[in-house]
Every structure is written in structure tokens, then in C-alpha cells.
Amino acid sequence: MQAELNKLVSALEAFYRQEKFLLEKDAGERALTHRLAVQLETQFPGWQVDCDYNRLGERTLLLPHGTIVSTDDTLGKSVYPDVLVHQRGIPINLLAIEVRKASNHQPLEHDQHKLRAMTDPHLWFAYRIGVLLILGRNNVSAAEVYVGGAIEPALTAWLAGRLKEAGLGAR
User: Fold this and answer.
1) How many other CB atoms sit within 10 Å of the CB of residue 168?
2) For residue 37, is it left (φ>0), alpha (ψ between -120 and 50) or beta?
3) CA distances for 95 relative to 27, 51, 133, angstroms
């Protein structure tokens, strides 16, 4: 999993190097996630990288009823992950990323619940890794890594260290 997270760090380095205008102008979250996805495509050849993608092959991406994340809307509030690294036609799902701007002061619970659910190994479409990124104007102010339906403290700490080494960690 560290190999995949290293690729994420490389994509974030390129993102922060190339997207200063969007960051300085406080562009919307969707603009930022799109540009991050562009950088991820270069890091994950052979994989598809999508934003706000709600499909699993021919099916619509729905979490089981009873989960804390709503699954019955099409307003971008339920299971529309910000960025996915996956295979579209078949459920081979590598990385689900939720992005928040540091200036967004809404509670993180929705994104955290979504990542716990999307990495839950009991679901047939589980993503191998989930990452929550809080993007500041100059660095990643916080990051959490999810594996097996829960936050993974060791990988979260490892990612924080890698971000700091790359000059992208919280200061």
C-alpha cells in the first residue's frame, strides 16, 4: 500500500507545483479534485481515474441501506467519491479519495463515513485504500488512510511523514 500512497504523494507534488493559480484564487473543491485526478492519471498507468463517479460496472454505486451515508440521492451528497482509481468495467477498485479544502469548516464525518464504507471488506466492491485529504493553499494540512473499513493509524502516520518529506505536510 505504501507504493500506491507514494504515487499519491507524487501526484500531490505535481498538483501543488502546477495549480498555484487555482489554490491562490480559492477555486472550488471540484476544480481541485479534477486537477488532482489529472496528476493521478500519470501515476497510475493502466488504471482509470474518475471524479464524482457513481458506477460499478453496469450498476449504480450504492452503499447498503442502514449505513450512515445516504444512498438515495443524486445531488452529489451520497456515494459520489471525489476521485477514484479503479477499473470501470469490472469492480477492481484500488483507491478512493475524498478531498476537502482547509477553508471548508463543515464536519468531516460524512467523508470519513463514506471512506469507511467504501473500504469495508464485507462489500463486494470494496476499495483497497481510502484517503481523506485536507488541502490547504500550500500543503496538505491533514490526511487519513482507510483500510478494511477503518482508519489505519500506521499508514496515516506513514503518509504524514511522506508528505512532510515532500514539503507538503502540515507545518
Assistant:
1) 20
2) alpha
3) 24, 12, 13
Place of cell 478531498: 99
Find cell 500512497 and name the residue.
5
Question: HEC string of 26-64?
Answer: CCCHHHHHHHHHHHHHHHCCCCEEEECCCEECCEECCCC
98: amino acid identity, one letter: E
Spatial distance between the Cα atoms of 164 and 139, rounded to a whole number of angstroms? 9
Find all residues with CB under 8 Å of 5, minimum gap 6, and list them: 129, 131, 145, 155, 158, 159, 162
pLDDT by residue for the chain (171 residues), tens digit each?
A: 999 999 999 999 999 999 999 999 999 999 999 999 999 999 999 999 999 766 555 555 555 544 444 444 444 444 678 999 999 877 789 999 999 999 998 999 989 998 998 899 987 778 999 999 999 999 999 999 999 999 999 999 999 999 999 999 976
Distance CA(78)–CA(91), nearest Å, equals 19
Report residue 138 as a C-alpha cell.
Answer: 500550500
